[in-house]
Design a protein that fits this description.
Layout (H helix, E strand, L loop, with lengths): L5 H8 L38 H11 L12 E10 L19 E9 L14 E9 L2 E8 L12 H8 L15 H9 L4 H8 L13 E2 L4 E4 L5 E10 L8 H10 L3 H11 L5 E10 L25 E10 L4 H6 L12 E2 L4 H17 L81 H8 L3 H15 L5 H14 L1 H10 L31
Helix pairs in contact: 3-4, 4-12, 5-10, 11-13, 12-13
The structure holds protoporphyrin IX containing FE.
Family: Belongs to the catalase family. HPII subfamily.
Function: Decomposes hydrogen peroxide into water and oxygen; serves to protect cells from the toxic effects of hydrogen peroxide.
Cofactor: heme
Length: 534
C-alpha cells in the first residue's frame, strides 16, 4: 500500500465501521440481542411484525441487487497508478501527462461484453479495458476495449447491434447452438461490422489473462496544448508481459473447469505481488493532416496502421491493489467517455458522440439517481463545488445558497468568464455544414482493413481464424445467413471465404476483386513522429 496515494487516503475515510469491533447493531445503531430466531408468539406461533430487526435484515437483503450493466456486465477491477515517462506539454496540457515524478491513482475494470454477470470469463468476445485516472484536475476516463476498432460506425445502431448479439428475446437462448443467427444476420447485412468481426474470430478474442491483453481507446480523440493547438490522438495500452491468448479448445475447457479464470488470475497475481503493468502509447496526427489518409479518422471501424503512424510510448500503468469490496468498487464504478480533463477533447466520431450521451444516461438508472459520483470509487480526489443539489442518495450536507450569479453570498461563485487557466475549455473547432444523415465516402469501404488484418496473420493464426469462422458460423441455422456472410468474406479474401465455405456446407463463392493494397504512408507534418518516445 502506498500511503501517499490520495485515492487510498480518500477510501480510508469512507471505510465502514469494523464489524468485529463491537456487538451487532441495526442500521440505527441499536444493539441486537439475537439474530438467528425471529420474534414469535410462543415456541410454535407466528412471527411478529413488531420484529424490526427481522424486517430490516430481510428488507436489506431483498434490495441487495442493482441492475447489471446493459453491456460489459461481467468484470474484474483493481487500483494502481499511472506515471508519464516525460512531459507531453508539446501536445497536451493534461496535468497528469506533464511530470514523471507525479503518480496518478487509477482504477481499471476489465470486462466481457455480451454475457451476464454470472457468465464465464474465457468466452470468445471483446474485452472492455476501462481506466479511471483520479487526476489533480478531476477524473479522466479512458473507456476502451482490447480491440482497436468497433462493430458499428454510428452509436444510433448500438441498440440494434446489441439486440442482435444478446440471446433471443423470447427464450433467452441464442439461436443455433453457441452462436447466434441474429448476430451473423446482422453482420452479413451490415458489412461495417466486418473489421471487428475479424478481430473477434482471431485469438485476440480469447485472452489468456487480463495481464497479457492490449487496450485501445478506439476513437480518434484530441490532445490540446496550452496554446490551444489540437492534435489527433489514438490511445494504446501495451502489456509489459506481452500479448498472450488461449487456444479455442483450452478456452472451452476452462469455461467448464473455472469460469472465473481471468478474474482469479488478476486477483491472485496482485495478491502475490506480481503487479501487471502496461505501457501507455499514443499515435499522433497533426490537425493539418486530418485528410492525409485513405480512411476517415472519425471512422471507428478503421485503425491508423502503425507503419504509417508509429505508437509513441508516453508512460506506464501498474495495478498493485485489489479492491476491498467487489460491489462497492468494481460494480459501482461508473466510467463515462465524457469524463475528460483540460488537454483532452473529443472528435466528431459519431460513435463517440453517442457514447458521450449513453453512459451517464444508463448510470442514472443503474446506480439509482444522480448522486453516484459521490460513491467512494467514483469520487474525484479534488474538491467538487457546484450548485447541483438533492436527488436520491444525496450524501453531502450542502449549506448556503445554490445558484449563480449570486450577489447575496454563499453558494458557488459565479463562473462566467472565469480567468482560471486550469478551467476546461472546449476546443474551438470550426464546424459548418447541412444537417444530414450521411458520412464521408470512405466510411463505405468495409473490406480494405479486414484484408490488412488478415494478411498480417501468420499461417497458424489464419488457421485459427478459419476454424473460428467455421465453428461460429457453422452453428447458424439459416443457410441464407451463412451464404451472405461468406459473400462478405469473399470481398475481403477469396481463399479465406473458400476455406470457411467448405467447412460449413456453403457453395464455393465466385472470386471477387481483391481489396486494394494499403496506401503508402502519407508525409505527416510532425518530423519527430518516430515512435521512440522522445
Ligand atoms: C459499457 C467500451 C461503444 C454504451 C462499456 C464498458 C466499456 C465500454 C469498457 C464497461 C465499462 C465498465 O467497466 O464499467 C466501449 C467501447 C466502445 C463502446 C470501446 C466503442 C468504441 C458503446 C456505444 C454505446 C455504449 C456506441 C452506446 C451508444 C455502453 C453502456 C455501457 C457500456 C450503456 C454500460 C455502462 C454502465 O452501466 O456503467 N463500454 N463501448 N458503448 N457501454 Fe460501451
Amino acid at each position: 500500500m502506498r500511503p501517499e496515494d490520495p485515492k487510498q487516503r480518500q477510501r480510508d475515510a469512507h471505510r465502514a465501521d469494523d464489524p468485529a469491533s463491537g456487538p451487532l447493531t441495526t442500521d440505527q445503531g441499536v444493539v441486537v440481542d439475537h439474530t438467528d430466531d425471529s420474534l414469535a408468539v410462543g415456541e410454535r406461533g407466528p412471527t411478529l411484525l413488531e420484529d424490526f430487526h427481522f424486517r430490516e435484515k430481510i428488507t436489506r437483503f431483498d434490495h441487495e441487487r442493482i441492475p447489471e450493466r446493459v453491456v460489459h456486465a461481467r468484470g474484474a477491477g483493481a487500483y494502481g497508478f499511472f506515471e508519464p515517462y516525460h512531459s507531453c506539454a508539446e501536445f497536451t496540457k493534461a496535468a497528469f501527462l506533464q511530470d514523471p515524478s507525479v503518480r496518478t491513482p487509477v482504477f481499471v475494470r476489465f470486462s466481457t461484453v455480451q454475457g451476464p454477470r454470472g457468465s464465464a470469463d474465457t468466452v470468445r468476445d471483446v474485452r472492455g479495458f476501462a481506466t479511471k485516472f483520479y487526476t489533480s484536475e478531476g477524473n479522466y476516463d479512458l473507456v476502451g476495449n482490447n480491440f482497436p476498432v468497433f462493430f458499428i460506425q454510428d452509436g444510433i445502431k448500438f441498440p440494434d447491434f446489441v439486440h442482435a448479439v444478446k440471446p433471443e428475446p423470447h427464450n433467452e437462448i441464442p439461436t443455433g447452438q453457441s452462436a447466434h443467427d441474429t448476430l451473423w444476420d446482422f453482420v452479413s447485412l451490415q458489412p461495417e461490422t466486418l473489421h471487428t468481426v475479424f478481430w473477434l474470430m482471431s485469438d485476440r478474442a480469447i485472452p489468456r489473462s487480463y495481464r497479457t491483453m492490449q487496450g485501445f481507446g478506439v476513437h480518434t480523440f484530441r490532445f490540446v496544448n496550452a496554446e490551444g493547438r489540437g492534435t489527433f490522438v489514438k490511445f494504446h495500452w501495451k502489456p509489459k508481459l506481452g500479448l498472450h491468448s488461449l487456444v479455442w479448445d483450452e478456452a472451452q475447457e476452462i469455461q467448464g473447469r473455472d469460469p472465473d479464470y481471468n478474474r482469479r488470475d488478476l486477483w491472485d497475481m496482485i495478491e502475490a505481488g506480481h503487479y501487471p503493468e502496461w505501457e501507455f502509447g499514443v499515435q499522433l496526427v497533426p490537425e493539418e493532416d486530418e485528410h492525409a489518409f485513405d480512411f476517415d479518422l472519425l471512422d471507428p471501424t478503421k485503425i491508423i496502421p502503425e507503419e504509417q503512424v508509429p505508437v509513441r510510448p508516453i508512460g506506464r500503468m501498474v495495478l498493485d491493489r485489489n479492491p476491498d469490496n467487489f460491489f462497492a468498487e468494481t460494480e459501482q464504478i461508473a466510467f463515462h467517455t465524457a469524463n475528460v480533463v483540460p488537454g483532452i477533447d473529443f472528435t466528431n466520431d459519431p460513435l463517440l458522440q453517442a457514447r458521450n450521451f449513453s453512459y451517464l444516461d444508463t448510470q442514472l438508472i443503474r446506480l439509482g439517481g444522480p448522486n453516484f459520483a459521490q460513491l467512494p470509487v467514483n469520487r474525484p480526489v479534488v474538491p467538487v463545488r457546484n450548485n447541483q443539489r438533492d436527488g436520491y442518495h444525496q450524501s453531502r450536507i450542502h449549506s448556503g445558497t445554490n445558484y449563480s450569479e449570486n450577489s447575496l453570498g454563499g453558494g458557488c461563485p459565479a463562473v462566467a468568464g472565469t480567468a482560471d487557466p486550469s478551467a476546461f475549455r472546449h476546443l474551438q473547432e470550426r464546424v459548418d455544414g447541412r444537417k444530414i444523415r450521411k458520412r464521408s465516402a470512405s466510411f463505405q469501404d468495409h473490406w480494405t482493413q479486414p484484408a490488412l488484418f488478415w494478411r498480417s496473420m501468420s499461417d497458424w493464426e489464419k488457421q485459427h481464424m478459419i476454424d473460428a469462422f467455421r465453428f461460429e458460423l457453422g452453428k447458424c441455422v439459416s443457410m441464407r445467413v451463412r451464404e451472405r456472410t461468406v459473400e462478405q468474406l469473399t470481398l475481403v479474401d477469396h481463399d479465406l471465404a473458400a476455406a470457411v465455405a467448405e467447412g460449413i456446407g456453403v457453395d464455393l463463392p465466385e472470386r471477387r476483386d481483391a481489396t486494394p493494397q494499403p496506401a503508402p504512408s502519407p508525409a505527416l507534418s510532425f518530423e519527430n513522429m518516430k515512435g521512440d518516445g522522445s
